[in-house]
Design brief:
single chain, Alpha-Beta Plaits
Length: 114
Amino acid sequence: MAPFIAGVLNNPQHGITGALICRQDIYLQLLEGPADAIGKLYEGILADNRHMDVTLLNRAEVDDRMFPDWAMLHDPAHSWHWSPDEVNAGAIGNASVQELQNVFRQAGTGATTK
């Protein structure tokens, strides 16, 4: 959980917001902010040996942030659409951008603390 706490503390000063969805077998993270800040953060994630099998599923510029008020929303798997067996069979890698965005939209629904 140390990287999550570091994100909560450090992301605002770099203009980064987002969400982290996690459970025992996988982490799924959405990062929003200036492209250069996201690039540096992503490079740091790749270089950090606490992160394994990091895969970039999508990178896009958007007009509006999904989590503008969150340094890093934490969702402990309440919004998951896939079973562990589906994840092992490649469901996340095969998911469309829309499906992935819907997972994060659901995570943000009802979130009340920042």
